[in-house]
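CORE FACILITY INTAKE
Project code: CF-77B
Contact: R.S. (postdoc)
Sample description: multi-component assembly, two entities in total
Requested service: structural model of the whole complex
Turnaround: standard
Below are the sequence entries exactly as provided by the requester. Do not edit them.
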Amino acid sequence: MTPRTQTLRFDAVVVGTGAGGAPLLSRLARAGLKVLALEAGPVHPLSEMATDERTQEKLFWKDERISSGQDPIGFGRNNSGIGVGGSTLHYTAYVPRVQPDDLKLRTEFGVGQDWPLEYSDLEPYYDELEHFLGISGPEHYPWGPPRNQSYRHAALPLNAAAKAMQRGCAALGIRTSSAPNAALSAPQEQEGYGVRHACTNRGFCQAGCSVGAKASVDVTFLPLAVKGGAEIRPNSFVTRFLLEGNRITGVEYLRDGLLEQVFTDTLFLCAGAIETPRLLLMQNLANSSGQVGRNFMAHVGTQVWGRFEEETQPFMGIPGSLISEDTHRLEGMVGGYLLQSIGAMPVTYASQYARGTGTWGKKLLEHMSGYTKVAGINVLGEGLPYDGNFLELSPELDARGLPKPIIHYSNGDNEKKMAAHAEKLMRDIWTAAGAHDLWTFPRGAHTLGTARMGQDSRSSVINRDCKSWDLENLYICDNSIFPSSLSVNPALTQMALSLRTADVFLKG
Amino acid sequence: MDPSEKAQLLELLESNRVTNATRRVLLERLNQKFERQFFSVSHLELLRTVALRLVPHDPLELDLVGPIDGRLAHGDSKGWRYADLALEPNPYKSLLEALPKDFLQLEGEVQDSILEGVQKEFPRAFEDLLAELVEIYYSHPLVQVRIGYYGFADAQGWTL
């Protein structure tokens, strides 16, 4: 197929419009650069966000990924986004800041990786984001360094799971706090978008917000970028990069079944921790270190569910409403985890119960008849990089003729110890809160680390400013760049890295 | 099926408690009919019988296998696959072909004990099939209201 070539040249092309691509896109556009974002998926207008999990699977990346290893990771759901806004369309919107010691894991424990950045590099961006996104949170957050400002909006109301977790934790002497959550507890004017409404407690954050309350980038950074002159081109699936020496000169992509090319001075690759290394490996680019695709990490994400005497209506209220970081460091373990209350949409809950317990037949239906009385909690814990956990290209091709990715993942000793510790603690919390019929869903959450940043070009793909060691005009900014997983939800830190990358680039 | 149950559901779906986007997809699902496109007649019949055991339901009220047949006819993936399952147009072929020839004629409890063996022998494919059936079943609005879920009627939001 002969590509349709566009003679129009851009100062920067951004591949991907999620938490990694959107913030920097807006920054570059506002600085007056001619910028284009290529997004593999479609636009998902708020008016077409149905309260129906099956329909909302349109927000998930469904091209087949092959899952290998002792603890294969499931994709196609909450860890895999597609469409304008990327995974922010279905993130839970828990937005805690990283604690500084998580950035220096190797210094503290002798294993894992240190980040080539300090907390002070991220802090001004956290401040900016918490204001810009309109984060709702408690007046005083009990963990981490003191903040320069309060959260912009009051904390969101607690759902039933959060109240149960509060009760159970109090009985065990564990501190809890309303979580910082990027959904609005009060309306907010958003530049380039208009007024975002306050959260209506739909409880459907993980299947798409229909009211604009949740600060996904389609209602925050992307409208700002468009106002600044950026162009966003949906349904544009990047297939390869055009090169001249050690510079990327353009991008080739499929749109509506046709191959197109655009030319650019700089490329920002923000396609996520699966598609970014997949694209690079297809041409063996930016890989003099041999680290592209390596160090795949997932958070320890164990969930514990239980049934209560009273109705919990687990679909109501913000799923991400209560948090504890009292388990940030644990005796005998590298790093730690945080505890969070969660919500339950019926289809996801039933599917996880079936997969997690293997239950079927009448027993399954009996369990689900108690759906309105269940509630869950989960952890999000440090997942270390290991040599055996990596992404590679399969000889098997997808419908476009491109190699499918194979993701190898096995928990190491630290993850196993942490998951066991977390399961016991969550069972104790749930028992103290009055739950019975407890069951555990083991899980690895998020996709991280496959094009990591570092101080040494021999052991990392990009430097501290997200610039490729090999190609002089390639930047990478998505969850692939995390050198360690951090024991917090990644979205806020990802957006901070994105803004920082743009600022460093613009300073030249 | 109790006709008043469906009437009540329709009344709720038509009300202003349901958004247009949600109403459209749920009404469509409520009335959806499927034509066989992918499975052979014999595999379809076997799969329908297996589905009745894994997720007991009234096949006149809802078709759990039709959506699977449609998905495979389009070659759609769920987004991933266990590496130890080979790439097959029909990922459930090994399961179905492991069932005895007289499976359809057996008593339900005997079918269950055979399926328990299949679950042990083909854990990955069995898990995938079970999850797919469960997701289709609990996506049906009649099934949802029967377990007390009415979250789709959220156009006015919820007060906690």
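Facility notes:
- The mean pLDDT of chain A is 97.
- Chain A is about 25% helix and 25% strand.
Invoice: internal transfer
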